[in-house]
Amino acid sequence: MSPARAKEALASLTRPRVEGEREQEILDATLDILSEVGYDRLTMDAVATRAKASKATLYRRWSGKAQLVIDALIHDKAPIVAADTGTLRGDLLSVFCGMGGITDPQQMAILGSVITAISRDEEFAEAFRRDFIGPKKHITEGIFQRAIDRGEIRSDIDLDLITAALPGICLHRAFLLGEPPTAELVTKVIDLVILPAVTRG
């Protein structure tokens, strides 16, 4: 390795890590731009400018736009915790109508800003499904499994299918029909679709 390369490598190792308040400023700037222009038009340059940071600072912490946006989405809110209310209905209402749930306007704005990217950017889509959607799906599966374990619902339901039904209906109405999800809509879907499907043969 040449002396110049060695010096550059040493400098990169001794640069301060992007963490704490500085990291949060960059993540906040990312979400601001994401909500303003969407994923497709968001750039590392724009985030660096908004956060008053250099692009080199961003690339020391994130390999690219997809990783940065996913990190911003994950760190935006405290992890969703499913309340154990004792009933499937109560648990679903708690998760889907609470902060970070499907009735949260900011959550819907985020989904709207990345929905086209999911079909166009394979790297982002993979990370989004794994790191953002994956934990939410896991929580919902746990809610239904708890209901099965206590004998509240049938044990032969298809968890993959039923866990997608409630968000699927709400997102269809939001993005195709222009009707933002409300607590009333979530309740209707639970009472008229979900509960009959999991309690009847």
From TrEMBL:
Keywords: DNA-binding, Transcription, Transcription regulation. Pfam families: TetR_C_11, TetR_N. The keyword Mitochondrion does not apply. Residues 20-80 form the HTH tetR-type domain. InterPro entries: DNA-bd_HTH_TetR-type_CS, Homeodomain-like_sf, HTH-type_TetR-like_transc_reg, HTH_TetR, Tet_transcr_reg_TetR-rel_C_sf, TetR_C. Coiled coil: none annotated. Residues 43-62 bind DNA. This is TetR/AcrR family transcriptional regulator. It comes from Nocardioides panacisoli.
